[in-house]
Amino acid sequence: MSSDYEYSDEDVDYYDDEDEDMLSPQDDDSDPSDEEMDMDTFGDDFKVPQRAARKSYEVEHESLPQAAVVKLKAADIEHISGIFGVDASTASLLLRYMNWNKERLIEKYMDNASAMSVAAGISPPPKAPASSSAAGPERSQGTSSGARSGALRRPTRQTPAPAPKPEPFVCPICFDDSQTAFSALSCDHTFCAGCWNAYITSKIREEGEHAIRCMAEGCSTIAPDPFLHTALGAGSATRERFNELLIRHFVSSNPNLKYCPYPSCTYTVSCPTAASKSALTTIVPTVTCGADATPPHKFCFGCAIDSDHRPVICGVAKMWLKKCRDDSETANWIKSNTKECAKCQSTIEKNGGCNHMTCKKCKHEFCWVCMGPWSEHGTAWYSCNRYDEKAGVDARDAQSRSRVSLERYLHYYNRWANHEQSAKLSLELYNKTEKKMEEMQITSELTWIEVQFMKKAVDEVEKCRMTLKWTYAMAYYLEKGNEKELFEDNQRDLEQAVEELSELLESPIDADAISTLRQKVTDKAVYVSKRNEIMLEDTAKGFLEGRWTWNVSVEGFD
């Protein structure tokens, strides 16, 4: 990142010896101390704070409160309003129609402004001109008739009839003739204020609409913001809800922005680095919103997973979660209750006590216990003593081969689920640790601040279990090879360190060995943090360098 304090040799002007007199001080009375001024005398006033280097598994992002997002939206509206020369409400409708894509809007509006205004619901479509072809022949026919008669009629003087009294306007929705306040959009469809208020409120509160059309059937005109504000009245809760819907539409339409998914959190995160799908093949965009929460709100900017799924990229993480939803319980049940036919490999469930099985698909008869052909069992109907028969051995080998995929999946799933369950029990671990911290404070001379090492260790364990959980999802899809072996070596070292630290945290408190426990827990927590760092760093660099290959097709990879 460039800085205002950085410079290069190209920016420096060099002077010849002839110019030295121009630059030398001419006043002999000048204070020599001014020439030898030491910048250190100013302390930290002139020191530039050094920003910590961003790690390879971190992404640059910015947390925005709601007020900042409102300013971004207002800036886009002002930008379009200035270019097109329209008011803010018109610019807002145009931007909402184009999903806040300023570049596409400018291109289309400059091409045909009228068509864009009609498409965005700002103005009604032009009416087709009335045809006058029918009136022409009638006039010519009347003229010829009068000419043939040859008689000129004498005009008669008539007294003009009094103008009819105009009937009061009645709202076509409620037909309430007592209403006196009416309003209409640019389409001139007029309705009473009460119907407008009820209609707009229903659209906003119940349907979550931010683009509210005219109530007339078939009319596509959109109500502008000032019209809606007037219809709802100042200070209305529905008006606040409408403004919130506008902000949400602005954020959801902007690929650089994403709302924090945590309940009741109003912060938005800006992360342009992860705005494109191609970027999600090399980074895991885990971001943190600016809410003052413990623990901080962490989530993935690139997908709908509301948690930190490093080190695995979004495409693989979504594949794994889908497989777990579809296969985990089914796979466990199949493994426990079924076997495959030795002939056609169909999955068969035993639904009776007899070991004589018949495949419904291929009609192959076999023994449920040894999987050998039933023809070799003689009269041993309810017991099997043919374990070593060659056909039975071959059948069991075929069944084992067919279940390799299932066993492999369960290997990774069970370990993934184990760490997920351990992470869910973190609240219970926090409560136990807090009681131990209180016990340490009572039985030793340590202060409450000094016993915080236990809580920090629990934080580290929880964070590393999340990393370990997702490493098993990644390992399941990694292609066999040296890279996978190195990955699993890092995984093993991290898991071993985490389990050792967890064991220290679970151990009972010995009043005479608190200082020793403190040293062991602190050292092990530092080591665990370092192993986690190595795991995340190496995996992130592997994505950037293209080291990882997959055993299935992954979105974004050739």
Task: Tell me what the structure shows.
It is a single chain. The chain is mostly helical and 558 residues long. Helices cover 47% and strands 6% of the residues. It contains 17 helices and 11 strands. It is extended and about 120 Å long. Residues 1-45, 120-164 are annotated as: Disordered. Residues 167-388, 171-214 form the RING-type domain.
Please write out the topology.
Elements lengths: L19 H4 L8 H4 L26 E3 L1 H19 L3 H10 L4 H10 L1 H7 L15 H15 L32 E3 L5 E3 H13 L19 H8 L4 H17 L3 E3 L8 E3 L15 E3 L9 E3 L13 H24 E3 L6 E3 L6 E3 L6 E3 L22 H13 L1 H21 L1 H18 L9 H25 L4 H25 L7 H32 L13
Antiparallel strand pairs: 1-5, 2-3, 4-5, 6-7, 8-9, 10-11
Helix pairs in contact: 3-4, 5-6, 11-13, 13-15, 14-15, 15-16, 15-17, 16-17
GO biological process, one term: protein ubiquitination
Keywords: Metal-binding, Repeat, Transferase, Ubl conjugation pathway, Zinc, Zinc-finger
Catalytic activity: [E2 ubiquitin-conjugating enzyme]-S-ubiquitinyl-L-cysteine + [acceptor protein]-L-lysine = [E2 ubiquitin-conjugating enzyme]-L-cysteine + [acceptor protein]-N(6)-ubiquitinyl-L-lysine
- Largest sheet strand order: 1-5-4
Estimate the helix proportion, in percent.
40-55%
Which class best fits the helix and strand makeup? Answer: mainly alpha
Order of helices and strands: HHEHHHHHEEHHHEEEEHEEEEHHHHHH
Using the CA coordinates, give the radius of gyration: 39 Å
Task: Give the integer mean of the pLDDT values.
Answer: 80
The major sheet is characterized as: 3 strands, antiparallel
Uncertain parts: 1-39, 44-48, 132-152
Proportion of beta-strand residues:
5-15%
Number of helices: 17
Distance between the termini: 32 Å
| Overall body shape | extended
| Strand tally | 11
GO biological process, one term: protein ubiquitination
Domain RING-type: 167-388, 171-214
InterPro entries: Ariadne, ARIH1-like_UBL, E3_UB_ligase_RBR, IBR_dom, TRIAD_supradom, Znf_C3HC4_RING-type, Znf_RING, Znf_RING/FYVE/PHD
Keywords: Metal-binding, Repeat, Transferase, Ubl conjugation pathway, Zinc, Zinc-finger
